[in-house]
Write a structure and sequence with these properties.
The strands form two sheets. Strands 3-2-1-4-6-9-8 form a seven-stranded mixed sheet. A two-stranded parallel ribbon has the order 5-7. Strand 2, helix 11 and strand 3 form a beta-alpha-beta unit. About 5% of the residues have low confidence. 43% of the residues lie in helices and 14% in strands. With 342 residues, the protein is α/β, with parallel strands linked by helices.
Length: 342
């Protein structure tokens, strides 16, 4: 599932900082990918209407500084057309911070433009997005946060199959990096509370997922450092918590902890405070990650026996789908939670 073009860019040295280079490559490719969907609006005068416009057509003979300036203007125009989502604001901010005069940056920009121009009409955006996300996460062997938030596609499929579409629901998600789960499980009238802690690239991936699913940004509250009191009082209908599918792809890597947004054990009692009395919840993780669960004076065995854990599902490792270890999903019925409601 590795995208060869992006992987080649990762392996090419543009700047000395490999980790920063990966983020710049991914950020630029994502920005160009979305602007590319609207290039017809910027068709040059006398350009044949029967031919698709490419970045090469629009940016040929321009200096690197002029290229970035044109891209900034495109992002600003597209933002005025789509005020319901902050995607193009994020893109404009990224381009504003991109110093094309820094050594190696002009070559990096040219490589990303070539990458986008190589895409064909068969390369639909969702598939391209998933391939790139897989590549970014797979290569982020020095970025614990990106890897910890990744949710393999087989897990997403099981969650969708179990919950189906929940319209007009408040959906809480914690540490879910690719943005697909809440947007696919929720309906057009659902709202989302996301406490994931993301770097800029994973935020940009999430913004594109939102945009493609036509989810207005004002229905998604992001980057909560704590759960607001009014959220606890109202309660959510569904919670999806990813404690991490932890995989040191480099066998020489060692990590003492499985990173989560707070780097503390996950409390079932806290989850109960977030959800309504009859809410449902799914907790996802591999064996190491699930050791973080604090059952709050209860046990896994008691939860299974009482029905609080409705279903415990184990998905077998599948390297072809970015699932290097077995993944367990706990489906919880909060109406049977063994603790008094606070």
């Amino acid at each position: 599932m590795i995208d060869k073009q992006v992987y080649t860019q990762f392996e090419t040295t543009y700047i000395d900082d490999n980790r920063r280079q990966r983020k710049l490559i991914m950020g630029m490719n994502l920005s160009l990918l979305m602007i590319n969907q609207y290039l017809g609006q910027f068709r040059p005068a006398n350009f044949p209407v029967t031919i698709a416009v490419t970045f090469d057509d629009l940016l040929a003979d321009l200096s690197s500084e002029e290229m970035v300036l044109v891209l900034k203007k495109m992002a600003v125009k597209l933002n005025t057309q789509h005020p319901e989502n902050n995607l193009f604001i994020k893109i404009a901010n990224f381009l504003a911070d991109f110093d094309v005069n820094e050594a190696g940056m002009a070559d990096l920009l040219a490589s990303c433009i070539d990458c986008i121009d190589m895409l064909t009409i068969e390369d639909d955006v969702p598939c391209t997005l998933q391939r790139w996300y897989d590549t970014y996460v797979n290569e982020a062997d020095d970025d614990e946060h990106a890897r910890a938030k990744y949710v393999p596609l087989p897990v997403i499929d099981q969650l969708l199959s179990y919950y189906e579409i929940q319209d007009e629901a408040n959906i809480y998600t914690e540490n879910v990096g690719n943005g697909a789960i809440p947007l696919l499980v929720g309906g057009q009238a659902s709202t989302y509370i996301d406490v994931a802690q993301n770097d800029f690239v994973t935020q940009l991936f999430g913004a594109i997922y939102q945009f493609l699913n036509q989810v207005p940004n004002n229905r998604i509250s992001q980057d909560f450092k704590y759960v607001k009191p009014e959220l606890q009082q109202q309660g959510c209908d569904l919670a999806i918590v990813n404690l991490g599918v932890f995989n040191p792809f480099d066998s020489t890597s060692t990590h003492d902890t499985i990173p989560t947004w707070k780097r503390t054990s996950f409390s079932i009692r806290q989850l109960q405070a977030i959800l309504s009395n009859y809410g449902q919840a799914a907790i996802v993780g591999n064996t190491e990650a699930l050791q973080q669960i604090n059952w709050d004076n209860g046990t896994l065995e008691e939860g299974l026996e009482s029905g609080f854990i409705e279903t415990m599902m184990v998905l077998t490792a599948d390297h072809s789908k970015m699932m290097p270890k077995d993944v367990t999903i706990f489906f919880l019925n909060m109406a049977l939670a063994p603790y008094p409601k606070a």
